[in-house]
Structure formats: structure tokens, C-alpha cells
Specification:
By secondary structure, the protein is α+β, with helices and mostly antiparallel strands. It has eight helices and seven strands. A hairpin with a 3-residue loop joins strand 6 and strand 7. The longest helix is centred in the last third of the chain and has 67 residues.
Length: about 290
């Protein structure tokens, strides 16, 4: 599906008529893929990388365009069960247009981010900015989910909360890897600023992007360390509780083994006869049962 945007009076707006054009393809069909590959001469492998969630973020320089593969957070829903995933996005910069290929609807140009845009370079930096800040909002949600699961673990005795925390930790690993890959792309864009035709204002914005991405990467790593520590602490508590339970069960087993040993050696009938004789066996027998 194609969503057409363009830059009019320094702002990215829906529709055509402005310059540069911004075309966003969401899961392009066969006809759209044919147009991208044959008309715009986009490499087929690079185009496939744009919607491959396992693809590595990178930047490639071609004769007619520059391709950037980024990671962005997948839209979270209740069906994901605390698993936060990431997806890939392909940004192709031409001299007169920017083509963005994704496999899900992503709000890239909203509010102030869509303003103060005049060149394809500006569009790319704005897309980078929105992608990085998308991670920020998801990290906030992860932090709230972590606090909620921690409370459930303290109050619950089943394994469901532990599994949820493990799933949340797995999602944070994806985020750390994605932010690390995006950091390498941003660094590569910074070193290739002259080749990309970036202005001084673009470089200043790119420096801010580097700082923000680094901050969110550190934040994700801190959350990951906290969750790992909680998992280890919870495992230690479970082991300690198990040791206490085994100690109590061993004491009970020893207490039961003493009368069992006596009755096993002498037998109930012979023991009652020895203690009470034939006259009082009906008194001694219940006494031994109660003691046991």
C-alpha cells in the first residue's frame, strides 16, 4: 500500500504537488515491487531487507540512491504477552524523493517532526528522529510492565509472573540489539555527511540524534540489568524456600520413622503383650496408636 506525502512550505503533508516527494510503502504488492525494482532501480535484496525483521541495520551507497536499513519497535498489543519485538525499515534517498518501505503502519511524520523540512536529507533525519523517539515511548511502557510484574511476583506463588518477566527480558534484548545497530548507522551517516550532502544544521541535528540514541541504549541496558537481577534474586528465594521445605519434611520423616522402627522390629501384637499383657492389651493398643 502506497501513502504519498510531499514537502510543501517546509512541512511534510499528505498528498502530492510538493518537493521533495515522500513515498511510504507498507508491505508493497507485486506491482509496487516491480515499480521499485525496475523503475527506481532499487536492489531487490535491499528491498527485501526493508521488511525482514532479522536484517542488520546498515547504510549502502548506490549510483542513484542511498539506502538505509533501520530498526524500529513493533506496535505492541495485549496479544504479545509482554514480548516487545522490533522490525526493519528501509529508507531510500534519491535526488528528488525519499522512499520508505515498511511492513506495518508507522507514524513517522507527526507534530513538530514534520516541520522545518526542505530537502531529502531533512526527511531522512526526521525519520531517524521519530524512530529513536519511538523507542523512548516503548521503554517507558516496559518500565511500567516491569513494576507491575514485580508486584505480581511478590504476591503470587505460581510461575506465570516469572514467565512474563522472562519474556519482558527477552524483548529488552531485542531493543538493545536494535539500538546498537541504529547507533552504528547514525555514526556512519555522521562520517559520510559530506557524501550525503548534509548541511551544518543537518549535522547539528545528527549530533543530537547520536546523543538521544545513546541515552536510550543506556536506558535499555539498565532495564535489562535490573530484570536480570530480579530474575536471579527470585531464583535464590525459590531455592531458599525449597531448602526450608526439605528441612521440615526431613524432620517429619525422622519423627515418623521412630515409631515405625519400633513397630517394625517388635510388631504391634507382641509389643502390647509385653507391656500390658493379655489383660490390658485393649488399653495399650490405642495408646501406641495415639503416640504414633
Amino acid at each position: 500500500m502506497l501513502h504519498e506525502y510531499s514537502v510543501i512550505d517546509g512541512r511534510i503533508t499528505r498528498g502530492t504537488g510538493g518537493s521533495p516527494a515522500v513515498d511510504i510503502y507498507v508491505l508493497p504488492n507485486e506491482e509496487e515491487r516491480f515499480h521499485l525494482i525496475h523503475d527506481l532501480e532499487i536492489d531487490e535484496h535491499t528491498l527485501a531487507s526493508s521488511i525482514d525483521p532479522d536484517e542488520t541495520p546498515r547504510i549502502e551507497f548506490e549510483d542513484t540512491y542511498t539506502a538505509i536499513i533501520l530498526k524500529y519497535p513493533k506496535n505492541y498489543s495485549a496479544d504479545d504477552n509482554f514480548l516487545f519485538r522490533v522490525k526493519s525499515m528501509g529508507i531510500f534517498m534519491f535526488s528528488d524523493r525519499v522512499v520508505i518501505v515498511v511492513d506495518d503502519n508507522v507514524q513517522l511524520f507527526m507534530g513538530k517532526i514534520a516541520s522545518n523540512v526542505y530537502t531529502p536529507q531533512d526527511v531522512i533525519l526526521k525519520a531517524l528522529l521519530q524512530t529513536i523517539r519511538h523507542f523512548e515511548s516503548h521503554l517507558r511502557v516496559i518500565n511500567m510492565c516491569s513494576d507491575e510484574i514485580e508486584t505480581e511476583i511478590n504476591e503470587s506463588k505460581d510461575n506465570k509472573s516469572l514467565l512474563n518477566m522472562f519474556t519482558l527480558e527477552k524483548g529488552l534484548v531485542y531493543y538493545v540489539n536494535a539500538l546498537s545497530g541504529n547507533r552504528r548507522v547514525i555514526d556512519r551517516v555522521r562520517t559520510s555527511s559530506r557524501k550525503l550532502g548534509l548541511t551544518e544544521e543537518n549535522i547539528e541535528l545528527l549530533d543530537d540524534l547520536q546523543i538521544e540514541n545513546h541515552q536510550f541504549l543506556d536506558q535499555a541496558q539498565v532495564y535489562l540489568q535490573v530484570l536480570s537481577g530480579l530474575m536471579e534474586a527470585r531464583a535464590s528465594i525459590i531455592n531458599n524456600n525449597l531448602n526450608v521445605m526439605m528441612k521440615n519434611m526431613s524432620a517429619m520423616a525422622i519423627a515418623v520413622a521412630v515409631p515405625t522402627f519400633v513397630t517394625g522390629v517388635f510388631g504391634m501384637s507382641e509389643l502390647t503383650l509385653i507391656v500390658g499383657g493379655e489383660t490390658y492389651w485393649y488399653v495399650v493398643y490405642p495408646v501406641f496408636l495415639i503416640c504414633m
